[in-house]
Design goal:
Layout: H1 3-8, H2 36-44, H3 58-71, E1 75-79, H4 82-93, E2 99-103, H5 108-117, E3 124-128, H6 134-139, E4 144-150, H7 162-171, E5 175-179, H8 184-187, E6 197-201, E7 215-219, H9 221-235, H10 241-252, H11 254-273, E8 278-282, H12 292-298, E9 305-310, H13 315-324, E10 329-330, E11 340-343, E12 363-366, H14 372-384
Parallel strand pairs: 2-3, 2-4, 4-5, 5-6, 10-11
Antiparallel strand pairs: 1-7, 6-7, 8-9, 9-12, 11-12
Helix pairs in contact: 3-10, 4-9
Length: 386
Amino acid sequence: MELSFILNELGEERENYFNAVSPPIIQSSNFTFNTVTALRQAMADEFDTNLYSRGQNPTLSILRKKLAALDGADDALIFSSGIGAISVPLLALLKSGDHIVAVESPYSWTIKLFKELLPKFGINTTFIDGTVYENFETAVTPQTRLIFLESPNTFSYELQDIKKVAAFARSRGIISMIDNSYCSPIYQQPINMGIDLVAQSATKYIGGHSDVVAGVLTGSKELIRHIFDHEFMNLGPAISPHSAWLLLRGLRTLPLRLQRSFESTGIITQWLQNQEHIQQVIWPFSAGFKQTQLAHEQMQGCGGLFSFSLKNSSFKKIEAFCNNLQHILLAVSWGGHESLILPSIASISEQEYEATDERLQLIRMYVGLEDTEYLIQDLKQALAKI
């Protein structure tokens, strides 16, 4: 299915809404039926029926079709956040006594899910260095029900061999799941590499305008339906019709925005690597990245998110650099039109800083849609002040 068709036509039956170019926002919580029989049928199967917008909604249905097609999946579920797209499926698929193998250092709220929430239900996790394939084979036990990947990681960008891990999981009857937020379906398609479930934060590139929070899960019809019929409907993580419409709007320009961010990041990372104040730059497509071959094998392009560190780094030096930026905004998240900076030390106090911990020295930058020279000049003046 062609990308242009997915983004601009799939699911859009314009004759049903006055031939409007843009789909309407069906801002309705409830839907009526002409007969009790029709109502009964809808109540028995909400997965493909507009009964109550906690489950499905016409605006949301258009979005589901597009996001599933982008991933090459059978179907999709849309959640009110990215972590919702990870948490709800695990609660739906796992039971007490089950075991998870997960890559170390995933998204912070994913860590909390594995370490704090799931153990309450008797579900435990083993964290491994996912850059070494053999670690997956070693960590699996007879109770392992799910393998969780995040490739690349969104601070230090470790990759996993997705095809190899997916094949191993299937050979053992284990569900494989990946957080694909960094690449989006434009630059990486884990379903085509054998992964069962793909989650991503739609807040990032899918939305693209920093005005909506959402998550996406794609996979087989069987798995998606099971998740919907159970914990999805019980926990109520659906997004509003207006949020779904904002994501549809974001999809129209998704390839263009990603391309711009990708190309600008290549220019800026190369510039930073040549600056005397910079210790290292970490970006999967930059020269010297330790897994560059795997990155090019699995990814068609690279997100606008990278990290770097300063020479002779210290807590105060990192703070001073970030505080001196005038145009690059200090904030979490990424994927919108604006460039952002996030130092690792933002999550700790000065007393907790350890100079020998390279991860605490990292400064993450997201490159938005501004002119590269505009961003370089901001980085340049901030570096000069330290």
